[in-house]
Amino acid sequence: RRIAVLKERAAGETRVSASPETVRKLVALGASVAIEAGAGVRASIPDDDYRAAGAVIGDAAEVVAGADIVFGVQGPEPDLLAGVKPGAWIVAALDPFARRARIEAYAAAGLEALAMEFMPRITRAQTMDILSSQSNLAGYKAVLAAADVYGRAFPMMMTAAGTIAAARVFIMGVGVAGLQAIATARRLGAQVSATDVRAATKEQILSLGAKPIFVENVAGIEGEGTGGYATEMSEEYQKAQADLVSSHIARQDIVITTALIPGRAAPRLITDAQIATMKPGSVIFDLAAPQGGNVEGTVADQVVEKHGVTIIGFSNTPAHLPADASALYARNLFNFLAAFWDKDAGGPVLDAEIGDAIRLTRDGRIVHERLLA
Ligand code: NAD
Question: Which residues form the Alanine dehydrogenase/pyridine nucleotide transhydrogenase NAD(H)-binding domain (predicted)?
């Protein structure tokens, strides 16, 4: 099978969907890999490293010519794909709700578009889960970006000139990104607290040495796994949570928000009135900025100041760590192909559980139930 790796063309995208390590492993599986010249440059991977791993380097048209599978970080422009084999797979984060026209173009071209961000959160798919691998790095980077603009230090310091107090950091939403944000803020020496709607996160917060801050009088979400995902909360819960945030946030120096609800806009967790109660010089990093933001006033890719508080949101936080984000993303794609590689077929064959979850188009049509509804 021929695998094509294109240079990412979206503004601000620095990542690449294959690494020299995954090229080597794909070649060992029996695939041939063609990479567009310069595809890895922003992730610090020179073309020669791909060549040494067994890839062929070419321009976009050469790379896609005769390809069975096209890898991307984001979905490639349909007009780049003219030379691929009929029914070729597009494997990328396809963002189908925002990019409907592009998905329709894939369908019209007879391509099979596979949205890697729809990978089910099941144990056997963990190694293929791009949301987890990228969120983890995003949680780390959010803390560093907030620390960078914060005019004070994170750790307590006892110096000859006097003592500096530790920064108070509050993490809202304790999924993959939030857990890494807690761990990172702790490593920097901050005093960390955290909250979530899922009761199961309380133990995880404690185990990282942080303080859980939870709504006590209204039930949150119990259970883990498929039953344990966040949903939109009742009005009663939202009111109790708003009161809790109001009483806690005024004493925080740094707030990192990460709260998402699968398939929905991000929940609003911090209002402008609450920001006004924070000390001047405090910093908020809103990791939900690309999904509409958890914080009133967040503007993606801008640093805004409200009531003396700096609010930061990136539209693509993993792209701020291009080398590691690419390395992990590339492994997710390799693990996906390797898990389904069928020696007799000489290529990957999907099963129904994962195939139905991620396949958007096939045989000239959109086939995913969430896009047909
Ligand atoms: P996410 O990115 O969808 O959301 C981030 C966090 O925000 C979640 O913990 C969520 O509960 C929380 N949240 C939502 N609304 C909130 C609100 N109003 N207030 C406060 N917090 C709110 O979550 P995620 O990082 O994808 O992880 C969710 C769960 O999935 C975790 O239990 C994680 O361990 C699990 N998971 C499983 C797999 C797998 O088995 N393959 C992979 C990744 C994650």
Answer: 147-313
